[in-house]
Amino acid sequence: MEGAWVHRILWLIVAVAFVVGVFVPASPEPEECPPRDTRVTAPYAITGYWVIPRADRCVTQRMVEAIHTIGGDTLVTFGPRFNAGEDPGFASCRVDGRPCAQVPGKQIRRVYTYTTSEEFGKGMLRCPGLERRIESAGRVFYRLSLAENCREPVHDLVLVATDGDGLGNLMAEAAAYGMKVFPGLPAAAQREDKPWEPDHDHTGALKAFTARVLADYRARFGGSGAFGGVYQSFELAMRDRADNDPIIELYAAQHAVVAGVLPGRPILVSPYIDARRGRGFPPEQAGDGMADIAATRAGAPMAIAVQDGRGTGKVPVHGPHETGAKVVPRLAPVVGDVSNAEAYYGATHAYVEAAAREVPDGVELWVNVEGFEPTPVAGECGRVDPLPLRGRTTKSRLDQQIMASGPHATKIISYGWDPFFTCQARHDTPSLADDIARDWQRPIIVNAVRQDRNGRPGILVEGHNLRGGSLRFDPHGAVVRQEWHSDGRLESAWAPYVPPGPLTSVTATNGAGHTSTSPYAMR
């Protein structure tokens, strides 16, 4: 989700949390959090969210419960950056009066740093004296060696700073609510001259550190039903990749470690698509990108969650009959006041369909709907730092994104819970999560095809919240009651109808009287 910006957000939050902890007197933590409410009262079609681990267990419980209430069953965290450069934030780490990077009797060749929201288990410390958990200047650090043997005279060190066991809290709460967590893998160091590429000078060290972290996860979380798998944080475009592509090489190297240390655990990847003419790529390349990414899984199960591109303005959400229409106002700041065809190679559904044709065995296709707007407007909450600013979207636009994802995705997830689903323009206005909880029952059609049943022609629709009610067919305006319904991963509903002319869209009204916010455009 927006490459390096995502990691800047995570580090900013950690830094702010540390500063607040230093200068604001801490409130005593309550002995007990409120009783958990494990009901799902508003099951929306989005079932997973990117979240930020919290050191406060009760804050974590409130977050997990809010997501679970609206149907969420999956939580994803970003992997901290495995940093090969100097980090002034580690200057306060000292052992026996010495900087943590100095170890008497050992030659230290290189020092890596890693800022995280977790506390490792005791098994992480293998080398007595050399590897340590350190409390220094009010913070917790770890000093770890990447050497294969503790007795070696030369060591590469990893200094780890943590703001608490946010990941442990997240795992515990997810287990209590019957949810899954995908912790982020350590994110590769970036090239200074090309920060969108990994620095392969440090891939060996990254692999060694990844193996240590995953072994710790295996020991701490291996018996928990909440440990769903791991998330690959280093982003790439889901397009035809060149031979010897550096990001694909990173994936292959790090995913082999996952398959070896955590056999059978899924790897989640969320590549982006870019439909902008002159900067992006056409839908046909999405299938090639799917195949290239899937080839890095080293035998591990994989879920590829395609970023739909609507939040960043890289890809539009529209039907085939709107190709010549002007881009919607929220996209104009990104691509200009032009038509969809002039601005983009295609819409979200075209890219997802191209990817769906290339899904191999052992891989699931998910869709990551971006839950924000490219730019904010006056009076709208959203992300204020770091740049670029992002605005809050609406529940009806999320419905459109889910519709555009089509019937191929086995799961819909979204970036990201904070701040986009939780922020409020004012204290007395609802958040996006509040809007979902209030309006979750509206039908969402993700597919519509002509289908005969028992020798009668009609239209079959697939989607969410379709049971009962009727289907409206435009431009003719005919409203026909459903005669058949089936539940499954997607609901299906059928109504007998033969359009007298071209059929452009279908709108559903379910038995509870709720009507879809947008018509589904027939393809």
UniProtKB/TrEMBL annotation:
<keyword id="KW-1133">Transmembrane helix</keyword>
<feature type="transmembrane region" description="Helical">
    <location>
        <begin position="9"/>
        <end position="26"/>
    </location>
</feature>
<feature type="domain" description="DUF4434">
    <location>
        <begin position="167"/>
        <end position="421"/>
    </location>
</feature>
<feature type="compositionally biased region" description="Polar residues">
    <location>
        <begin position="504"/>
        <end position="523"/>
    </location>
</feature>
<feature type="region of interest" description="Disordered">
    <location>
        <begin position="503"/>
        <end position="523"/>
    </location>
</feature>
<dbReference type="Pfam" id="PF14488">
    <property type="entry name" value="DUF4434"/>
</dbReference>
<dbReference type="InterPro" id="IPR027849">
    <property type="entry name" value="DUF4434"/>
</dbReference>
<keyword id="KW-0472">Membrane</keyword>
<protein>
    <recommendedName>
        <fullName>DUF4434 domain-containing protein</fullName>
    </recommendedName>
</protein>
<keyword id="KW-0812">Transmembrane</keyword>
